[in-house]
Amino acid sequence: MLLKIENCLLSIEREPHFRLTGCRAGNICLRTAPHPQPVLSIRQTNTGLDVEFPTCTLSITPSGYGCDLRIWPETAHFSLAFEMHGHWYGHGELVHQQYPLNRLMLPESPFQSYDNGPAGQSCKPNPAWFSSNGISIIAGSPVSVGINQPPARYPRYDWSLGAEKGPFTHRPFADPGGEGDGLLTFSGQGLRLSVHLSEDARAAYHYLTGIFGHPAETPPESLFTLPTWTTWARYKTAVSQEVVLNFADEIIQNNYPYGVMEIDDRWQTHYGDIAFDPARFPNPKGMIDQLHEKGFKVTAWVIPFLDPESQAFAEGKARGYLARQPDGEPYPVRWWQGVGALLDVSNPSALEWFRERLERLQRETGLDGYKFDAGEAAFFPADARSAESIQPNEYTQRYVDFVARHFRLTEVRSAWKNQRAPIFFRQWDKWSTWGLDNGLHSVLTGMLSLGLAGYPFILPDMIGGNAYDELADAELMIRWTQLNALLPAMQFSLAPWDYGDEANALCRRYAQLHLEFSPRILELAREAARTGQPIIRPLWWLAPNDERALACDDQFLLGNDILAAPVVRPGQRSRSIYLPPGQWRDHWTGALYDGDTALQDFPAPLETLPFFLRA
Question: What is the pLDDT at residue 388?
Answer without folding.
Answer: 98
